[in-house]
């Protein structure tokens, strides 16, 4: 995306730098700043998450021992193992217990999109501030910007709903429903009780920011569209008798 912008810019002769910070007060520039900030919030809230689920285990020679499984981004839960209740593993009845599910593809899609959008916004802001005269005098750059904005808005829609579904599954895979599926907890004399799991409120916030990004980019499509000759041509057609 960044290369598309730079290629569109470099195809013109009028590439002299003309700083104009006032463009940030205009809708197109202001929305781009918001998109830049919200992209940071997405990969900060999702990519930086660390959680833990805990069980209370009683077995041979061990009474009410807390065992934990720590998980983090990108949520490959099937590689996360619970700690053993004791060094002897409940007299040999406790085997390695893993969480279920691999949600890395959904998490990577969501966070990688945020990182790419962050880079695109930085590039676009550099162009808006330093080369606004190129943007205003030639329609090739606005058309490129419009195409990329439509694509990003669509990707935010897809990635947000994919990540929201994965988050719902992560909550199930780390919640109380995991206890009946643990074979070691079914051994004679062994009982397991779900104790706690780290709050995932921050991950819920990441979904909200995904939706906000989708809305912002949908609005951005309209703002960029107004700067293209497509909009002016449509106005001339609608005003003609």
Automatic annotation (TrEMBL):
GO terms for cellular component: synaptic vesicle membrane
Compartments, record wording: Membrane
Keywords: Glycoprotein, Membrane, Transmembrane, Transmembrane helix
Pfam families: MARVEL
Keyword RNA-binding: no
Recorded topology in the membrane: Multi-pass membrane protein
Keyword Membrane: yes
Entries under InterPro entries matching the protein: Marvel (IPR008253), Synaptophysin/porin (IPR001285)
Chain segments annotated as transmembrane: 23-44, 107-131, 143-164, 202-225
Residue ranges annotated for the MARVEL domain, each copy included: 23-229
Membership in a protein family: Belongs to the synaptophysin/synaptobrevin family.
Protein name: SYPL1 protein
Source species taxonomy: Eukaryota, Metazoa, Chordata, Craniata, Vertebrata
């Amino acid at each position: 995306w960044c290369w598309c912008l730079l290629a569109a810019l470099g195809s013109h002769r009028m590439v002299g730098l003309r700083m104009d910070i006032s463009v940030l007060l205009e809708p197109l520039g202001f929305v781009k700043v918001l998109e830049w900030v919200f992209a940071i919030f997405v990969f900060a809230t999702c990519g930086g998450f660390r959680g833990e689920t805990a069980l209370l285990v009683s077995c041979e020679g061990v009474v009410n021992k807390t065992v934990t499984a720590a998980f983090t981004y990108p949520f490959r839960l099937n590689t996360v193992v619970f700690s053993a209740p004791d060094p002897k593993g409940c007299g040999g009845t406790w085997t390695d217990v893993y969480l279920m599910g691999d949600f890395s593809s959904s998490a990577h899609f969501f966070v990688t999109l945020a990182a790419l959008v962050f880079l695109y916004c930085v590039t676009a802001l550099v162009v808006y501030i330093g080369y606004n005269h190129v943007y205003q005098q030639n329609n090739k750059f606005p058309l490129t910007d419009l195409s990329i904005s439509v694509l990003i808005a669509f990707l935010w829609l897809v990635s947000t709903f994919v990540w929201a579904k994965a988050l719902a599954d992560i909550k199930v895979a780390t919640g109380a429903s995991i206890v009946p599926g643990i074979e070691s907890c079914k051994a004679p004399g062994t009982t397991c009780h779900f104790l706690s799991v780290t709050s995932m409120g921050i991950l819920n916030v990441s979904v909200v920011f995904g939706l906000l990004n989708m809305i912002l980019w949908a609005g951005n499509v309209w703002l960029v569209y107004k700067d293209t000759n497509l909009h002016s041509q449509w106005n001339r057609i609608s005003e003609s008798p």
